[in-house]
Amino acid sequence: MGAKADKVMDVCLRAGELMLTYGAETYRVEETMERMAKAAGFRNVQCFTTTTGVFLSFEEKKGNGDLMQMVRVKDRMQDLNKVAEVNQVSREFTGGGLTVQEVERRLEEIFAQKVEYPIYVIHFGAGIAGGGFSYLFGGGLFDWIPAFAAAVLASITLLEIEKLLKVRFASELAAAFIGSSAGIALVTLGFGNNVNQIIIGSLMPLVPGVPLTNAVRDLLSGDLLAGMSRGVEALLTSLSIASGVALSISIFM
Fold first, then answer.
1. Is 0.85 surpassed by the pTM of this model?
2. Last residue of a domain, which of 112, 143, 169?
3. Which of 2, 44, 197, 206 could bond to 139 as cystine, CB 3.0-4.6 Å?
4. Judging by beta carbons within 10 Å of its beta carbon (0-12, 13-18, 19+), is residue 24 exposed, middle or buried?
């Protein structure tokens, strides 16, 4: 593999890896990588993406055979801002505005970026969403504050457990348990009237909306393997949340 082909292969795979890691749809990852490889002058570009890996192959020179590499994607999280930034870098590269070296530097800068908002803002936003959903699902204004507090506790638990454990779905189960337990405790102490609406509101920020949406979009675009695996992941996350709630209710109610 020539030096240019090796560098382009690394850059394309890195772009696909970042997009898949931070919540992009499968077809978007494949389209971005193919456009970048074709813009670099390579032929017969083929890309295959699953939820845990990215495969890319292309032909450097006619008659020399195809070159292929893959990248394993272990961690998956949601940061659509980084997906949009990688998309922008790919557009600039395919338009001729960036060199391969500049793309490589920009991608590493995107990867190194910290969360755009402070952690306390994320927790506060989860609380606002929890209180709003409790009211939306039939709770009263008096239920807004306990739902807010329970959602904040669930959000804090989710992030802290993710730091401590690398076990999939354990953080969702723990967060659902803490959130629903907090809702039950607050109603027992006289803060709030509708325990069901408070629990539902506190858990809504945990619901895997983006993975479920991506699963449907992948299925509709014909990526059956990725769509089904994303759907199973969203289902297991939902089951973890339900298990946490069931455990809390069985203990405290």
1. no
2. 112
3. 197
4. buried
